[in-house]
Write a structure and sequence with these properties.
The protein is an alpha+beta fold. It contains eleven helices and nine strands. It is about 40% helix and about 20% strand.
């Protein structure tokens, strides 16, 4: 069989085989078999050198022509099979518009924000207005005007984050409590009576443990008016405790000391888990410590623009994280700011 005959036979076989190719994988195999580097046509073309000189040009043209024909047929088949594969993929992925949609994942309010919102609602029912104050504060407002002595331990660097300021500038810090807002609001509104709630972040240079964080939240309430007494304070606390922890919750005040209140007290509530009988959460005492409170010190009233011989006031400060930890049995305050979405979703 001459080379020309072999080329004719190859052309017929390749064309017939190509017509039966059903997918791109089979097409790639066809290309390798017939027109690849080791394919049948390539092997035949290597025999051109052994042909007589007068036959060689004609045979060469036949080889090149067949290669062009097979490559053209390959390109056509490849385009046809690629389109068919895309159509099959689209058909398989086609959206059934009659199917119910998938609800998108929703965010949740952080537990601290949930508690603060509840606190704000409770105090709003008693006529308190929510007010904000700066987180970056002057030392004067954070300590001096709140009756802190110059040598008070809270002024030390280990408790407070101070900002670097130019020489001669007033001392500036990240507020260690929300109480500076009391002075700012009193100076804005004196001598009018007021009832305000001051929620916000506070900062203390403390070691981070299961019970303490460098940044946490507080909310502080303040009432100033004529003839306010400890009875008014306890009534406010009793209403708050029942609304926050449920009907029947009792309030107990224990003597304490804070520079900005006189007299001062620690507020306890009867354990809402055991009803005051004693359990692990209340350490079997029947009471849970919530925060501090007291009558506004005369010096603080005076610094706020009120005459302490005419006006009196009461105030208290609590931590929403502590309230949440007690209410939900959370053992580690670091969970509030650890960034774990699962913790947030637990209270969504």
């Amino acid at each position: 069989m001459t080379l020309i005959d072999e080329l004719d036979s190859l052309a017929q076989t390749a064309t017939t085989t190509l017509a039966a190719v059903a997918n791109l994988a089979e097409l790639a195999e066809w290309k390798s078999t017939y027109i690849g580097k080791s394919g049948s046509l390539t092997r035949l073309s290597r025999g051109l050198g052994s042909l007589p000189a007068d036959v060689r040009p004609t045979a060469g043209r036949q080889v090149n022509l067949l290669r062009e024909q097979l490559e053209s047929a390959f390109a056509t088949a490849e385009e046809r099979l690629r389109i068919a594969a895309q159509q099959a993929e689209l058909a398989a992925d086609r959206i059934d518009v009659s199917m119910p949609g998938r609800a998108p994942a929703l965010g949740y309010a952080h537990l601290t924000n949930q508690v603060l919102a509840q606190v704000e609602q409770i105090f709003a029912e008693m006529g308190f207005q929510v007010t904000e104050s700066p987180e970056v504060e002057l030392d004067e407002y954070n300590f001096s005007l709140l009756n802190f002595a110059d040598d008070h331990p809270a002024r030390d660097m280990q408790d407070t984050f101070y900002l670097e300021m130019p020489a001669g500038a007033p001392s500036v810090l990240l507020r260690t409590h929300t109480s500076p807002g009391q002075i700012r609001v009193m100076r804005e509104r004196a001598p009018e009576p007021l009832r305000i709630l001051l929620p916000g972040k506070v900062y203390r240079n403390e070691q981070v443990t299961v019970r303490s964080e460098m940044m946490f939240h507080q909310f502080e309430f303040l009432a100033v008016g004529r003839h306010l007494s400890m009875g008014d304070l306890k009534g406010t606390l009793a209403y708050f405790a029942e609304r926050m922890y449920g009907p029947g919750t009792q309030v107990r005040l224990r003597p304490s000391f804070f520079p900005f209140t006189e007299p001062s007290a620690e507020m306890d509530v009867s354990c809402f888990l055991c009803g005051g009988k004693g359990c692990r959460i209340c350490k079997y005492a029947g009471w849970l410590e919530i925060g501090g409170c007291g009558m506004v010190h005369p010096n603080v009233l005076r610094n706020g623009g009120y005459d302490p011989t005419i006006f009196s006031g009461f105030a208290g400060g609590f931590g929403p994280e502590r309230i949440a930890m007690l209410k939900y049995g959370i053992q580690d305050i670091r969970l509030f700011y650890g960034g774990d979405a699962r913790f947030v979703e637990m209270f969504g």
